[in-house]
Amino acid sequence: MRIFSRLAIVILLFSGACSSERNTFTNRTFHNVTAHFNAYYLADVKLQEVETEVFQNYKEDYTQILPVFIPFDSATIQANSEKLQSSRELASKAIEWHKISKWVDDSYYILGKLDYYQSHFDDAQNTFKYINVNSKTPDLRHQTLITLLRLYVDQGEFENANFTIDYLSKESKISEKNRYELYRTLAYYYEKRGDKSGVIGALDKAIEYSQNKKEESRINFILAQRYQREGFDALAHEYYGKALEGNPPYERSFYAQLYAQQVAELNASKDLKKVRKYYDDLYEDPKNKDLKDVVIYERALFEQKQGDTELTLDLLHQAAKEPGSNPRVKGYIYQKLAVINLDEFHDYRASKYYLDSALTFINESDPVAIQITSQKESLDQYVFHYERIQGNDSLLSLASLTPDEQKLVAENYIQSEEERLISEAQALQQPKNTSIFDNLLAFSDRGSGSSFYFDNGVAMQQGAIDFRRTWGNRPLQDNWRRSAVSFQSTEPTIPEPSENDSTGTEKESLVSQLPTVEDLLANIPNSPEQIETLNHELEESYFELGKLLYFDLKETVQSIDYLETLVREYPNSSRKPEAYYLLYLAQKDLGGNSQQYVTGLNREYPDSQYTFSVNNPDAASGNLAYVESSKRYEIAYNAYYAGQYQTSKSIIKSALEEFPLTRNTERLLLLDIMNTGQTEGRVRYRERLENYIQNTQDEALVELARIMLKPLLSEAELAELNPKDIEAADSTQVENKELAENGGDEDLSESPYEYNENSTHIFVLAMEPGQADAAKNLLADLENFHSKNFPKERLRTGNMNKWENAIFIISPFSNAEKAKVYYNEFLKDFKSEGLSDEVKSNSFVISIENFQVLSKSKKLEELEEYRTFFKSAYK
């Protein structure tokens, strides 16, 4: 009985201790121990396992400055979702089952980190803020605030980040561990803000509190890289040395030694020899068999510093062929080749193709890839037009020859290609070492300098060429000599060679790719339509290449050559006015005879915007010119609709003379043509419309001009047009007001608005008159926004004054998707003084057809009705 009594007492004590409501010493001790060593401990272990896996799966790119923090890998996080869920459940149990333990706040911290890693950022923020307010443990509060700071930086919430930094700066007794994390997070903050000095300063402070030698090694490596980029070679050399401490991974150690050579002081030729020998030793070291491309690449950069461009290019080509463990390095190699060919030789074709190769090794979402893609836009255009000119010129030259001469050219081309393949085979032929066993072989000439057929690449290439000349491109099969065999349909009876069986396969495939005489002759144009097409393409490419060379590539002399060729070879080109203008600018830059093009424009194209520009070279430009020309346009437009056509023409003329080349120019010209239609004959009206269609770049305005031209065409001319519906694109106030005043007569009682994904769209910003007055710089800010974010879209801004509200319209967008892209970018990035967030959030996009419906009312209520439709149909 005594034993049972004692056991009952123990059970009662434990039962009482299990209660999470009674806050006694026994209860607290029980819950502290249980929460710590059961739920919290296991939750923390599982979380650390995922963090370790993220770290291990990350491949450091030592050719670039290492990031302060290793980024979260969403794929790894997703793959460990079960483990993270288990950690979440355990942490939740520590909170629910052990409410009075001192590990509750720590468990909340685990939940906050889990939400952070799984991209539940709002939940993570709320959890971290709760801990900061409620926790009585300073270390945990500091740790939480530091993690919250990193989250703010990730999200780009720099105002909140600044507030958190300021708050932490006033906190005292921050532990060394937390100070280390704080300074690392500050470095991350400066990294995101692009403050290079801030990163270096914060990492220097972090090292003072580092307790992990491997992490300290990585920070020293980052500091060394940053000092090297800033030109502080002595400091960089010192920190590369420090990065070798702490038993770093072999690859980091390799790069630290490699880069240390780049920043070492070289004072004499013997030092150069020492460095070159160092690179040779690295290359020969078996441990670096997967880093040979890096060694040669860095050697190339070293030789470039010594001014040996030829050797640099040779080494870069070698590096591209060497094995390597990091594909991105190949991308950097090709990028460097592109830069050298561009800067040293102005070889735009080679640069373009090297950049293409670079992109095959770098992920398209990588910032470097984005930079390369942007860099090669002009080069892509250059190569396209350059190669089209070369190809079309050759085809037109061949078209002018007799059939016999064409055949001779084709035969000579094939012969030259065959000779090239044979010479390449000779270059690749490697003499084999003579072996004592060669004499024992049945074919004793298979040693060095062998003429044995299957060991002789030249003989195999020649054999493949001879076979092709005699029999054509026949598949590998039995009875291949049969003359009646169907070569296209017969399947080979001999199996295809395997990947490893490369004997002769590559050479045979190259020979089979050679064209036949018939193939070459078939490509030569032999009809007037084909020749006309080639000439049209040449005309376009001469102009576009000349324009590209002048504006983007700054090759003024080459630009003049192409533009003068256009004017000379295609005197009736629709691009001639702009070509004259570009030639005028180019000759003016070079101090040449620019006046000849002024004379040509005034004589041949008196109504062109380019003529107005050369006649008034000191005219205003930029935002002020755009705003002022918009005002003139509105006055001229109102005069046109009031029937005051001559007044309208005078206003347009003065606007074009004072502001000749703005984004309003083309619509001013179209309004002037509309005046011509009212004051002059049909012949002159039609002539001006046709010229406008040929010379205008804005597709929306071209479509509108075509609609205006259709009533002037005869039935025969209309019959020649392709039958299609031509929509009037709403890109100017001309279209805006016509849509507003000439809306359709559809019955809108049931469904006033319809979603049409492929219809032309516009963006609408509606506000009350007082709000419009407050946003004084709206038009100028919109223009800057378009120039920065949509430079190639030719967006235009207009306003409509016949509504109760102020309505601003941006157009054209060729479909709903492009309009939604603009809408989202506008909400995210556009800022203008006096423009409230409420007005921005009330903006919308709308199709031309729906805008016609909306324009009937011009009431605020109709705008609200459409906004309801917009939210349901476009989001």
Automatic annotation (TrEMBL):
<protein>
    <submittedName>
        <fullName>Uncharacterized protein</fullName>
    </submittedName>
</protein>
<feature type="region of interest" description="Disordered">
    <location>
        <begin position="485"/>
        <end position="510"/>
    </location>
</feature>
<feature type="signal peptide">
    <location>
        <begin position="1"/>
        <end position="20"/>
    </location>
</feature>
<keyword id="KW-0732">Signal</keyword>
<dbReference type="InterPro" id="IPR011990">
    <property type="entry name" value="TPR-like_helical_dom_sf"/>
</dbReference>
